[in-house]
Amino acid sequence: MIAFLTSKEPTREHYEYQGWRVTPLYLAAPVARAASPSEWQPIETAPKTGRTLLLGYLNSAGKWRTVRGQWMSANYIEAHWEDPDDVEPGWFETSAEADDVPNCWGIEPTHWMPLPAAPQGAAQ
After folding, report:
1. Is the alpha carbon torsion for 7, 13, 14, 15 positive or negative?
2. Beta strands in the chain (DSSP E)
3. Could you tell me if 70 and 53 are in contact, meaning their C-beta atoms sit under 8 angstroms apart?
4. Tens digit of pLDDT for each residue in 70-95?
5. Phi, psi of 36 (to 5 degrees)
6. Other CB atoms closer than 10 Å to residue 69's CB: what's the count?
7. DSSP secondary-structure letter at 36?
8. pTM for this entry
């Protein structure tokens, strides 16, 4: 969680008292430059926000498989699934056709990349 300090919010001492570690940005370790959005990245670096991504892995025949999918948390599953019993949080391949209820299958991807932007002039 990121806290933004303003004049109306508690001080650094307040956050440290609550158990937060407060490090000024100028002292924080530099963040590695992200790979180009057009490059596959290790799944460990993927955002687990529920955002739809391209996911990839080798299937049982040893062939590369690229799918549309997302991370689904326990809270998301509980709130959106009709029968959430025995479903663990994780990566899911997702499919939706028009107004149908989305279908999904648990998968174990090894790589990810963001979805490309829609073509210029395409309907949103």
Report:
1. positive
2. 41-42, 53-58, 64-72, 90-95, 103-106, 111-114
3. yes
4. 999 999 888 888 887 888 999 999 98
5. -60, 140
6. 23
7. P
8. 0.64
